[in-house]
Write a structure and sequence with these properties.
Elements (H helix, E strand, L loop, with lengths): L1 E2 L1 H13 L6 E4 L6 H11 L3 E6 L5 H5 L1 E5 L2 E5 L10 E6 L6 H13 L1 E2 L2 E2 L4 E7 L13 H4 L3 E5 L3 H11 L3 H9 L17 H12 L5 H4 L1 H11 L8 H5 L12 H14 L3 H14 L2 H17 L3 H8 L3 H14 L2
Parallel strand pairs: 1-10, 2-9, 2-10, 3-6, 6-9
Antiparallel strand pairs: 4-5, 7-8
Helix pairs in contact: 1-2, 6-7, 6-14, 7-12, 12-14, 13-14, 13-15, 14-16, 15-16
Amino acid sequence: MSLTPAELTRYLSALISHQLPLSTMIWGPPGVGKSSIVAQLAAAHDLGFVDVRLSQLAPTDLRGLPVAEDGVSKWFPPEFLPRSGQGILFLDEVNMAPPTMQGMAQQLILDRKVGSYELPDGWFVWAAGNRKEDRASVFDMPAPLANRFLHLSVRADFDSWRSYALGRGLHEHTIAFLTFRPELLHRLDPTQPAWPSPRAWEMASRLLTAGLEVSPAIGEAAAAEFMAFVRLYEQLPDLDSVLRGQNTSLKLPDEASVRYAAVVGLASRAQNADEAYHAFIWLGEHAGAEWLQLYVATLVSKFQAIGQLADLVGLMQRDPAVAERIQGALSLAGG
């Protein structure tokens, strides 16, 4: 079952809401956000979260150490395994662990216990791993272990990433560039140590904010194309004045890449309904319907991500054309 990050989040959230403690395996390429999705879900549902990297453990690290007591050897479980409350026990990199370690984890996944340790009720056991086609150093998962999981696959998806990026305040340039070149959101290059992925673009955003070179995060080829796009920002009209409703006679450049930068820049910078409305009116006068639709889709994605959709209600009440566009964007977004 292949899902976007947004679809995976909804599926896993339903398992939590319906209290279905079914062991679940999440497959996907490196850098698409498998681990962060699970951590964010735990926080959203006010659950505990224990992240165990099986590939970094030995079998005794999971089962515990044998200690003699009254002439009998007893296993003392590790302190990182939960003993109370509710939460998610996340077994990351499960198929990078050697077969002996996977065998030890099998008991925990199937019986919710290992050695003398027993996982408390209210805890979910989820796992994640990369696929062989991702050129990851993985072991085959034994059939008995695989049969104990639900299996979900997650793929890189630009719309999901855009919503995440807008909500996290990632650098405007990265969002605009990937709106223009969404195929570069994830492009695995096994011959290079750095290549574009959702995780790498988030690192690039932080580097960009600090004024540092982004190629160590996304690789030389993607960085060259990205920086050429960034230089287009020098051709942009004064977006801040547009958001203030000033200088409305400014023209939108004809070059498509510059238009992507301007439209996404306006949506990213709009801080309230007034600014969003000024940009909508300006684009309506200087751009075609497709650019106006891109602006509204980005704006809706941003306001959803930051939990301010109520602000769009006031915006919709100002103008029937605005309301129609926003309703259409909400329908496409499942809002």
